[in-house]
């Protein structure tokens, strides 16, 4: 065993010795070039495009059932979802054993296609038909 270790170390010794850096091998400082790292401070922000609101932030007209729930005739998807969650929590409609399940009352049944219970991740899909084009 000692023989194989000695053989192994004798093979590696010249290799590790050749990997040491000599000061002569480094380039002189005058030939080094400094590169600037890109950070959030150096990245230019694009100007907002004339304040246009797009996507899920854009207000849309909603169905009468959704209007009865959120209280306004036109609302963005994000705000509608916030209003629905405020209604759910305000009326204590989450299942006490599994908070991911919502027990629907009459207003929510109209919006959620008459379902008795809805999973919290299903809400966004169920409100989609209530946003009119």
UniProtKB/TrEMBL annotation:
Matching InterPro entries: SWIB_domain, SWIB_MDM2_dom_sf, SWIB_MDM2_domain
UniProt entry keywords in alphabetical sequence: Signal
Entries under CDD domains matching the protein: SWIB-MDM2_like
Signal peptide (from-to): 1-18
Domain DM2: residue ranges: 55-133
SMART domains hit by this protein: SWIB (SM00151)
Superkingdom, taxonomy of origin: Eukaryota
Protein name (Swiss-Prot/TrEMBL): DM2 domain-containing protein
């Amino acid at each position: 065993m000692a023989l194989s270790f000695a053989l192994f170390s004798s093979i590696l010794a010249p290799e590790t010795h050749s990997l040491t850096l000599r000061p002569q091998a480094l380039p002189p400082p005058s030939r080094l070039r400094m590169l600037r790292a890109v950070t959030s401070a150096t990245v230019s922000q694009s100007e907002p495009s004339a304040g246009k609101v797009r996507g899920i932030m854009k207000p849309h007209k909603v169905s009468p059932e959704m209007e009865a729930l959120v209280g306004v005739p036109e609302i963005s998807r994000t705000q509608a979802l916030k209003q629905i969650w405020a209604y759910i929590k305000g009326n204590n409609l989450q299942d006490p054993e599994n908070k991911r399940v919502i027990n629907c009352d009459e207003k929510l049944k109209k919006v959620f296609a008459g379902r008795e219970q809805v999973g919290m991740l299903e809400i966004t899909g169920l409100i989609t038909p209530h946003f009119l084009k």
